[in-house]
Amino acid sequence: MPSIAPPTDPTEGHTAKVFDVALAELRLHVVTMGGLAIDQVSTAVRALLDGDASLAQVVLSRESRINEFERSVDREAFRLIALHQPMASDLRMAKAVSRITVELERVGDEAKKIARFAGRLASGEPTGPVRAVARYLRHMADLTTGMLREAVRALDESDPDLARGVAGRDSELDAEFAAALRQLLTLAMQDQRFFSATIDTVFALKGLERVGDHAKNIAEQVLFVASGEDVRHQKQGDPAIK
């Protein structure tokens, strides 16, 4: 006797489609947030290098938008997981986008700190230390925004190979940071009047290095979505992150 297929829930296909659309919109919001975070970093560094208080204020005025993105995406990701109980791959995506917004919010925090320093420079703080490492600041900003852009694009295109490439740029960023610190140390030893401004400049450089770390963390979340493997605590050179 032939088996009888169980009755099909007429709402099942509709529910799955609603979830897919909501998840796609959620990912789009994260990509949009990523674009804003990238612009925040590049604008903050430009404000610092140019001593432009108005540009610094643009960064500070947009900080609330970054925070709201994080809150809204986190709420929606939680709602999707709670209501739809998604399959493993969709669950990984929902969890990943929530984690990625945390990383992007922290990128926004680093941009805010650099913008505040730019505002102090525009108000009369000595510019010698920034001028001394301007080349490094500019190059590190290019590296970090490039890493962020690739990480966000990897999420948008679900491209694990692009995500793996992000970590490979970290060594160049570290080398630039170390060289800039040596330059600042030389300057501080020559003229102690620059001590306070030198410390602020070190924090700006360190902030850019952290932006690179956040870009790596985002790329690792993309790999988590693609493979289901958590590579956050693996070392560079391990098979999963080569």
How would you describe what is shown here?
- By secondary structure, this protein is an all-alpha fold.
- 38% of the residues are buried.
- It is elongated.
- Helix 1 packs antiparallel against helix 5, helix 2 (53-84) runs antiparallel to helix 3 (88-122) and helix 3 (88-122) runs antiparallel to helix 8 (195-227).
- The chain is built from 8 helices and no strands.
- Helices cover 81% and strands 0% of the residues.
- It has a single domain (16-232), classed as Up-down Bundle (Methane Monooxygenase Hydroxylase, Chain G, domain 1), CATH 1.20.58.
- Mean pLDDT is 87; it is low at 1-14.
- Its main location: cytoplasm.
- Plays a role in the regulation of phosphate uptake.
- It comes from Povalibacter uvarum.
Short description:
This protein has helices spanning 12-50, 53-84, 88-122, 128-132, 134-157, 160-167, 170-190, 195-227. With 242 residues, it is mainly alpha-helical.
Mean pLDDT metric:
87
Level-1 CATH class name: Mainly Alpha
DSSP strand count: 0
As a percent range, the share of strand residues is under 5%
Q: Shape, please?
A: elongated
N- to C-terminal distance: 55 Å
Q: In sequence order, what are the helices and strands, one letter per element?
A: HHHHHHHH
- Secondary structure class reads mainly alpha
Tell me the number of helical segments per DSSP (H or I, 4 or more residues long): 8
Biggest sheet: strands, sense, closure? Answer: none
Proper CATH architecture: Up-down Bundle
In CATH, the homologous superfamily goes by the name Phosphate transport system protein phou homolog 2, domain 2
Approximately how much helix is present in the residues? over 70%
How many domains? The number is 1
Radius of gyration: 22 Å
* CATH-defined fold name: Methane Monooxygenase Hydroxylase, Chain G, domain 1
- Unreliable segments (pLDDT under 50, ≥5 consecutive)? 1-14
InterPro entries: PhoU (IPR028366), PhoU-like_sf (IPR038078), PhoU_dom (IPR026022)
Main location: cytoplasm
Domain PhoU: 31-117, 137-222
Organism: Povalibacter uvarum
